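Anyone? Bumping this.
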Amino acid sequence: MKNEATSNVFSSRFSRFIRSEAMGAFWLLAPSLVGFSIFYLIPFGQSILGSFEDRLGGGLTLSNYQELLLSSSFQKAASNTFLFTAISVPILVAISLLLALFLNQRVFLRNWLRTAYVLPLVVPVASIVLVWQILFDWNGAINAVIQHFGLDRRDWMKSEWAGFVIILVYIWKNIGYNIILFLAGLQNIPGQYYEIADLEGAGPVRKLFGITFIYLTPTTFLVVLMSVLNSFKVFRETYLVAGAYPHDRIYMMQHYMNNMFLSLDIQKVSAAAVLMALCIMALVFILFRTERMFRSFME
Amino acid sequence: MNDVIKGWGAPLLRSLLLIPIAGLLLLPVVLPVVNSLMTKREISANYGMLGKTDTSSFVNLKWIPDWVSFQQYKEVLISSPQFLHLFWNSVYMVVPIIVGQTIVATLAAFAFGKLRFRGREALFFIYLMTMLMPFQVTLVPNYLMADRLGLLNHPSSIILPGVFGAFGVFLLRQFMLHIHSSFIEAAKMDGAGIMRILVSIALPMVKPGIAALVVLLFVDYWNMVEQPLIFLQDAAMQPLSVFLSRIQEDLLGVSFAVSVVYMMPMVLLFLSAERYFIEGIQLSGVKG
C-alpha cells in the first residue's frame, strides 16, 4: 500500500520531468550538441592533449610548444599576423566610422551608397583576385599610372609593399560590415539628446564628442572585435594571389598552419591552434572587461 | 536663395565625397562584368602581358568593350563542361550546409533563447567562443575528426562541420530573444507542448532571422577556400572558388566570364535580400 503510493509519487514526478522545459530543451539541443561535440569540442580537446604529446611516444611534454616558439617560420607568421592586425584594424575602424557618420546625415542616393559599400562583402574571392592581378601586377594598372608620372614601377606583391596591398584589400572587403554596425549604433542614440544639446547651444563638434562618440563606444568595441576576427580571413585573398609561400612580409599564421597540415605535423599545428585560441580568448576577455568598466563609469 | 544653398549644400558636398569612394569599392564588381563582354582577342590584347616580366607594356583598362560579345559566356556555359562541373561542386557543398545548419540551429536556438534549463549560459558561452575562433583554430579539430571518420578527400568532411557550425545557433538565438515571453507563456497556459510552441509561435516570428542566416551562410560558404584546400586533395572536387585562382594565362580569356557566373548568385541573392542581410549583420553584432 505504502509502496504503491511512493511509486505513484515517483511516476508523476517522472512524467512531469519528462514534460518539463529542461527535457524539451535537451531534445531540441540534442542534434546540435552531438554534432558540435563530434566536430568541434571533442577533437579540440584532443588537439589540446596532442599539443602536449611527445612525438617519440609516451609522456606529456612542452617540447612541441618550445619547438614551435623557436621556429623561425612560426615567429615570422605570428609577428606578421600581429603586425597586420595592429595596423589595419585601427585604420579600418577610423575610415568606416567616418563614412558611417557621413551616411547617417542627409546625403543624396543614400540607400544606393549603402548598397555599394556593402556589396564587396558578397564579391567572391575569385573576382577580387582577378582585379588584384590587373591592378598590382608588374605590368598592372597601378604601375602604369606610376610610370606615367615618371616614377619607377615596383613589384607590389614581391616586395615590402605586399603588406600595404593586403591592408587595402582588407579595408575594401570589410568596410561595409563595419558601416552597417556603426549605422545601427548611430540610430540607437536617442534624438532627444541632440535636441537638448541644441537648446543648450552646443556646436556640432561638441555634439560629436559629447554625445555621438560617447554613446557609440559600445558599438566601437564590437566593431573592433569583429574587425580583428575578420583580419584573420584576409589569408584567403593573399593565398589565392601569392600562393603557399608568398613574400616574407605577408607570410601569415594561416600559411604556416596550412604548410604544417600538408607536412602532417599535427602536434605542431595543434600547439599553434591552442596558442591562437588562447590569444583570441584573452582579446575577447580584455575587450569585454574594458567595455564593462566603461559602462559602469558612464553610469 | 541663401537658404536653398544652406539646405542642399552640405548634403551635396557629402555626396560628392561619398560617391567616388563607392565607385572605387565597386571596381572589382564592375571590371569583371565589363571584361566578360569582350572577345578573347581583346582580352589578350589588354591583359596578355600579366605575369610576364620580359615586356614593358602595361595592361589596358577599358570600361567599354570594342565589340560586345558573348563569346566567353558561350565557351564557359556550353563548350567547356568542366566549369559547370566545378560550379556544381560548390552547389553540392553549400546547399546541404545551409539547409542542415538552419534546421539544427533553429532547434538549438529556441532552446537557448526561450527555454530555461541548468547550464544554459555556460553551454552557450562555449558555442559563442567557438564561433569567434578563426578558421586557423577550428580547422585543426575539424581535420582530426574528418581523418578519424575517414572523411578526408570527400565533400562530407566540409559539409558536416558546416552543418554543426555555431554561427546559426548564435544568430537565431538573437532573433529568438526578441520574441516576447508573454506569447510563449500564453501558449503554455493553453497547454501547448514545446514543439507546438516552436512550430506555431517561434518559427513564424523568426522568419526574418532564418532569411538572414541563409543569406549570410551562403555568402560565407560560397566563398570558402580554407576548408577545400586542406580537406580535398582531388582537384576535380574543388569548388569553383579555389579553381578560379589557379587559372592559367591561356584561360584568361574566359576567366572573367567564369568569375561573373560565380559572382551572380551571390550578388542577386544579396540585392534581393539586402534587408535581411543587413539585419543579420546588425544582430550578429549585438552581444549575447
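Late reply, but here is one note on the structure posted above: Chain A has two domains: 2-51, 66-298.
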